[in-house]
Amino acid sequence: MLESAQGVIKKTAKDLGLSSSATERLLQPEALHEFHFSVIMDDGKPRLFTGYRVQHNSALGPYKGGIRFHPGVSREEVQALATLMSIKCAVAALPYGGGKGGVVLDPKTVSEAELERISKAYVRAIANVIGPEIDVPAPDVNTNPKIMRWMVTEYLRLKSVQTSPRLDRGQLQSVQSKKTDLNRFQPVPTDSNLLATFTGKPLDIGGTLGRTEATGRGGVMILKSLVQRLAVRDQRSGTDRQSPVAYKTVAVQGFGNVGYFFAELAAKEGFQVIAVSDSKGAIVGNDMEKNKSLDAKLVVECKAEKGSLSGCYCMDGVCDIKKGRTLTNDELLELPVDILVPAALENVINKENMQSIKAKVIVEMANGPVTEEAYEYLTKKGVIIVPDVLANSGGVTVSYLEWYQNMKGEKWSEEKVNTKLQEMMDGAFDAIWDKSVKKNMNLKQAAFEVAIERILKKMVYYMS
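Now predict its structure.
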């Protein structure tokens, strides 16, 4: 992953005529924190964990990026993700640089109490290198608002210890030995600026409305903008007089938070979502020719009841086993749909299946779902691919809006959040599309070029 991310940056830097020193500055992280911390487990024994926080580039503002808990977390992976966050934030025109964190941990193997202690111990390890104007973490793989609550609470507690004038030596030793509740001596501060250190928080501690749906919603906004531009382009060409109807049918691989909201909101916008999948398999409706879309909400309810998507062919308010059929995840990718949305895993479209892809448009809602080899092949074939750094940037955009509200001491309505999201996604898409048309390049090349140009303008170290 790191090699791939750096490869695109190197290619873009070469196209822009950057010096080797400037290119290297874009590639290397500004700081890489690797550390080990012990946590007392439920059996009373200590266990050692490895954690990371990589801070890639702060030219545009504080580092921004999630914290993931996964057994496969590695320094290379976190560095790659931090690098891509720098690009994503710049693509979205956010005043952020890129960062990422992680702990080598399978959350399924620990109790909730152990998970809380691990989360707080991780915060203690990174507390001195984060802050609302330094580095702003958020949820990522296997982390969520509950874990953000634990983390921000611990961070506020630590700041209380650092600033409290009322603890004498004996009291401080008592706190450090965990025999005394800190709150007896120093109230936990509620300053919204400190709350802004983390985003993706629950609403009652500074979270924002609209965050849960933001990534999927942003992806649909980008898709709508793309379809409108493609329709105009095709009509002007005079060779293939398409219309928005020519980009209508959708298949979504991955039915987690991102895929679910993408499917639900795309259907509301008039797209025909004919197929969805989870890790166990896919379903496709039989009514493609009848212009009917799966009802994402009913599909989720049906899946919760049945334990799988199989048989959950829900449309027009009812679920009917006769309305569809099951597929494998691989078969979903090869459906004859207009728009394919890989929203689950990396590298699912690759040299093994790229020649079987029939979609006209691919929207990368997952991180890196199309390999470089497949990207080049499909682009030459005429497939329009919306890169992940643009397609799924709605999440970090609303994270920025949460941070902004905290920093300003404001609380917005969901309508205002979504309105601002629309404005920002429109702006991001317009910049990428215009660059793509002007220089006759694909959207991924355009996105990286726009991002790197924005970063370079702020890099005081840059010398040609």
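Residues 164-169, 175-190 have pLDDT under 50 and may be disordered.
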